[in-house]
Each structure stands twice: as C-alpha cells, then as structure tokens.
Design goal:
By secondary structure, the chain is α/β, with parallel strands linked by helices. The chain has two domains: 159 residues, P-loop containing nucleotide triphosphate hydrolases (Rossmann fold, 3-Layer(aba) Sandwich), CATH 3.40.50; 66 residues, no CATH class. Helices cover 38% and strands 25% of the residues. The protein has nine helices and ten strands. Helix 3 packs parallel to helix 5. The longest helix has 16 residues. The radius of gyration is 18 Å and the shape is globular. Keywords: ATP-binding, Nucleotide-binding, Transport.
C-alpha cells in the first residue's frame, strides 16, 4: 500500500533530514514509526502525504508515484497531522461535509459514517458549534472523523494520541484495528511506545534520518520491551 524507495530529503546547508529510507507498508499493516525528536519522522510523513517536495527517491501509494500523480495518491490517503489546522469559521458538520464533498463521498455513506464516528467520539452534540469554540481534544476528534469518512486505503497519522482523553484514545485504537481488518493500512508516528508495542504488527525505528531497525514488532523487540530496544538503539553510537 505504501512503498518508500531510497527517499532522501535535504534542507538548506545540505543537512540530510532523511537519508536513503526504504520501507514497505502492506494492506492490513498497522505500522509504527518511532524515533526521537528531529529523527526524520515528520519529514517522512509529510513527504508521504504530498505536503513536502523531495528530490531523491520515490514514494508510491497503492502502486502510484506521489511525484507522478499526487492527486490520485491523495484520493486514497487520509492524513492527520500532530496539530490539525481546521477552519475555525465553519461548524463541525460544515467541515465534515466539506471533506465529504472533496472526496466525493455519497450522501448516504457520509451521513452513516459521520454518525458512527461522531457518536463513537462523543461529539455529535457539538457538530453544530463553530470549530473556533472547540477544545484541542475536540479538534483532534473532528480531524480524525474527517479522515475516516472517505474510508481511506492508507491512513497516515503524526502523533495521533496527543490531546486525546483515554476513552477517545481507546476508541481510535479500536477503529485503527477495524480499518486494517477491512484491507486498509496505517502508518503512524508515536512517542507512546507501549501503545506501539501492543497495537502495531510492524515497527520502524529511525535515528538521525536513517532507518536502524524495522520489521515485525515481535522480531524487532525480541524478548525485550519495545521501550528497552528503542532506548538501546538510539543511545548506541
């Protein structure tokens, strides 16, 4: 579903934020992408979703190159950044309908999925309110719902559990498992290593822009906890 091939991104001064990254996320995968701050996680994620240009390597979504046909790639992808930038002058339901229009979601599917997910995240009663009145957590929930209503083939999330209360975080994990059991794939970054260990079937660890471990979660961590393995790998120079 997602193939990253020799992806390299350099910024001004020639410093490489990501250096020759190769990664494959298959249908049904919940793939955790972990690393310390500045390791290259967000740079990679922003390139995957077509927000950030890059010169070296390629990224393909469902077999389509993000460079050659970014619109087709984005049609199959949903992206939730770590700090969602929503339209404060709209109500919650206006924003969800805007996203539904953008992705061509039918009226029946839209109504069914908005009800399903807004009930699940307990913000149905707030959908008529202006987004400007929402708390950070409510904005995060609205962003998640907007990402789910077109049933993406690939869901990309950057620190998705930040700002969510425990009940909402549990609901998101349940939905992620459900989505992947129906053939979608999820690629997400997180600092919550115990969540990654329990939720992800595959893990990639990035350090200084380079992939230092990746594969099935059980193989990456062995008999240790993911936290122990992560700390050993990033501290080992």
């Amino acid at each position: 579903m997602l193939t990253i091939t020799h992806f390299t991104k350099s910024y001004k001064g020639g410093k490489k934020a990501v250096d020759d990254l190769n990664l494959v996320v298959e249908r049904g995968d919940i793939y955790g992408f972990i690393g310390h701050n500045g390791a290259g996680k967000t740079t990679t994620i922003r390139a995957v979703v077509g927000v950030l240009d890059f010169e070296e390597g390629d990224i393909a979504i469902d077999g389509i190159s993000i460079k050659k046909d970014p619109v087709a790639c984005k049609a199959n992808t949903a992206y939730i950044p770590d700090n969602p930038d929503l339209y404060d002058h709209l109500t919650g339901i206006q924003y969800l309908n805007f996203i539904g229009d953008l992705f061509g979601v039918s009226k029946a599917d839209r109504e069914r999925l908005i009800k399903k997910y807004s009930d699940a995240f307990q913000i149905t009663a707030n959908l008529g309110d202006m987004i400007s009145s929402y708390s950070h957590g409510m904005k995060q929930k609205l962003a998640i719902i907007s990402a789910l209503i077109h049933t993406p083939k690939l869901l990309v999330l950057d620190e998705p559990f930040v700002g969510l209360d425990p009940k909402a975080a549990h609901m998101l994990k349940t939905i992620m498992v459900e989505l992947c059991s129906n053939g979608s794939a999820i690629f997400f970054s997180t600092h919550v290593l115990d969540v990654a260990e329990k939720l992800c079937n595959k893990i990639a660890i990035i350090k200084g822009g380079q992939l230092i471990a990746h594969g099935k979660t059980e193989e990456v961590k062995g008999k240790n906890s993911l936290e122990d393995v992560f700390l050993e790998l990033i501290d080992n120079d």
